[in-house]
Write a structure and sequence with these properties.
The protein is built from no helices and three strands. Strands 1-2-3 form a three-stranded antiparallel β-sheet, with no helix packed on it.
């Protein structure tokens, strides 16, 4: 990710929420980061919100 979360030396599992306020949608993705591996747990969006 842009903030280097994959570069941290963390042995614990972290959950991360990524919001995307795109041009025509509003999306959210829930990721779990564990030992440098990103796993997408859930993603959803609303096509009526956003630009």
């Amino acid at each position: 990710l842009a903030y280097g979360l994959d570069k941290q030396n963390s042995k614990t599992s972290e959950k991360i929420a990524v919001y995307d306020l795109g041009g025509g949608t509003f999306d959210i993705t829930i990721l779990e980061l564990n030992s440098g591996v990103f796993e997408v747990k859930s993603t959803n969006g609303d096509t009526f919100l956003g630009g």
